[in-house]
Amino acid sequence: MQSLDNLASLTPLQRAIYETDQLGLTLRDSIKIVTQRMGFFVGQNKYLEERAKIDRILGAPEAAQ
């Protein structure tokens, strides 16, 4: 896991998604946790869009679709 201390460019939502993804949960469970952490509903589409942005910011290759 890459340290997020020096990545001020990540939004609070992106940080929550990144940290939750490290837990290895299902997508549905991850969305539930992020929604609870943020205090507002995070839908599947938004979650996946933000995950793709995180991958671009961190320089990780995107998964083949």
How would you characterize this protein structure?
With 65 residues, the chain is mainly alpha-helical. It is 57% helix and 0% strand. The chain is built from three helices and no strands. Helix 1 packs antiparallel against helix 2 and helix 1 packs across helix 3. The longest helix is centred in the last third of the chain and has 15 residues.
Structural key phrases:
65 residues, mainly alpha, 57% helix, 0% strand, globular
Which helices and strands appear, and what pairs or packs with what?
Blueprint: H1 12-21, H2 27-38, H3 44-58
Helix pairs in contact: 1-2, 1-3
Number of helices: 3
| Distance N to C terminus | 23 Å
How many strand segments? 0
**SSE succession:** HHH
The class by helix and strand makeup works out as mainly alpha
Gross morphology: globular
